[in-house]
Design brief:
heterodimer; A: 111 residues; mainly beta; 6-stranded mixed β-sheet; 5-stranded antiparallel β-sheet; 53% strand; B: 7-stranded mixed β-sheet; 4-stranded antiparallel β-sheet
Chain lengths: 111, 116
Amino acid sequence: RKEVEQDPGPFNVPEGATVAFNCTYSNSASQSFFWYRQDCRKEPKLLMSVYSSGNEDGRFTAQLNRASQYISLLIRDSKLSDSATYLCVVNKGGATNKLIFGTGTLLAVQP
Amino acid sequence: AAGVIQSPRHLIKEKRETATLKCYPISRHDTVYWYQQGPGQDPQFLISFYEKMQSDKGSIPDRFSAQQFSDYHSELNMSSLELGDSALYFCASSLYVTGGAYNEQFFGPGTRLTVL
């Protein structure tokens, strides 16, 4: 079982739709959480860090539930340019800052 | 500000050859990480360095070694290359924060290694 689990999708949505991605992680000692987006054959780009209180950046809202070990990302008013793979990423912190990636969720926004 | 720089961007090698990948972190970042992403896979952590010392080691083969230099750039050396080493190799950098919380890592464009 992978340490970070995501629904691989694909999620095919029309422009303007709202879409939500979910992610679960198995290591309760995990300290910090992120969403990255990755376009085909490109590097992962940090979309947002996920804080315990939840945080919002424009059309993007991230939530963290430590008790359930669950992270979510909500995208409102989807744009064609949002089409990408969204990676849920966990950092155990402490002596190591290595990132543990989920397999990613593919989003395809249709015109 | 300039992002993480990696060179070369593309590399083609034969089996059993060696390869050296270079990474130049974002200015003032003191920590460098290497990740390997195979086709259709998520990135897997290989190794990291903080202040020129190895800080963590992941699933890095013994045929691979890496180091961080005094200017904080890092090199990943790969020997006896195998077909299975064909992948995207990403370098990421961050500024170390005590406690490790929210050390946001920023990725370079990657080196695409093809082993024939």
